[in-house]
Amino acid sequence: MRSDLRRLSGLTLSLILAGGLALAQGSAPTPQDLEALNYYVSNGDSRAADAELRRLRAQFPDWEVPSDLTTLGQQRSPAAEIDRIYRQIAAGDLTEARQAMDETSRNFPGWTPPPEMERLLATAEAQAAFDAAASAGNAGAAIEIARRTPAILRCDRVNNAWRLAELQAAAGQKAAALQSYRGVIASCSGLSEVTATLEKAEAVASDAELVELFRLANAQLPGSGPALKALETRLRAGRGDTAPEASAPAAAATGGAKRTPGRTAVAEADLPAAGRPRTAGVARSGGGAGLSAVRAAAQRGDWRTCTGLTSGATSADMLYERAWCVYNLDRPLEALAAFEPAASGRLGAQVARDARFGKTLALLALKMTEEAARLAAATDLTIQQRREVEAIILDQRGVRAYQLKEYRRAIAFLTAYEDLTGGLRRDLAIMRGYAYLNLGKRTEAKRIFTELNNQLATPETRAGLNASR
Predict the structure, then answer these.
(1) Phi, psi of 406 (to 5 degrees)
(2) 159-169 tens-digit pLDDT
């Protein structure tokens, strides 16, 4: 129950428990529901078509099956419109997405927005409203938004709970802030999430309350005693406690956060898809012709067919396949939701790891660098997966630091990226040259621009050389 609901505080517990969605079915399938049947009929797969037909009859008992199944293909599914809506949600164009959803419903009378799309859009709208309230320092509005949409206080959006607690503390509501932090510790299973929360809670907790919070954290994460002890010792020492200093460094107590180097908008089109474990080595909980067709489409890189065949899927294995397919269609927000059942362990430990890897990539595609870093730190990724993720995180942090004019940090991140990958993309190398230039280190900047100009002279390298003279 805890891992499914991911409740975050006593304030929202009852809301989250009441937040389940009732999925009602209509009396007849929509064109989107018929995608799989269309596929089987058009490919002459009668056995799979019969099986899918039986499933549809059971799901839609009032549906009158056409005598000629080939006519089903004439009911066009709004695939292009659906893709556009998901892209608009991912891009934050929420008003446009809502308008497109309504327009598609009017233009395709047999189509209704799937619950997953409605949920993603509603959550994105709530997140935008929450961000606006938090930025305005309006704790009351932020709490009300979280009450209406408890999904924004899930553990994979733990930043929201932290911001809420900070708003409560700023408003003098110390007890409420402490309760929000306590809710995260009692509900989230990631060491990095829990330790970061403990560090934040230390600012509003008394000595006795801090002891109680660490007792709660140890009960939640029984295998993380040494890391929690190291953190507790460090925090108590900061309060003037004479307890011996922790032997483990702070980075270890925060789940290895120091290994969160990455990549950003500089190479937006180059998000990795090559190292992902599409279907190989996956422990399956079922199969049949439907799953076989989905896996075949995924193996040949036919993401649209795969997405169509998994429309409306509810089983963990079908959703796992769908997650990778929509991720490769640049729909990372939808991929996040589809990865969740497998990430929670329904298909075994190996698939859970790969699904969490997929969630990390989706978060990075959404430029949610810190959230991705926390998830990666709490997951036992393979060496290849970890290198891939860390490279993107270093990239994104380096670019972000440069944009914030934190040039020393930008250089550190980009150099770490180079050490990890064995090279530095040209755009990042130019950025590092300008970072040195902004720090007044003209000799180092000139060396970089000279090397780049010798490799390939461009207006950018010539401008860098002129600026560093």
Answers:
(1) -95, 75
(2) 888 888 988 88
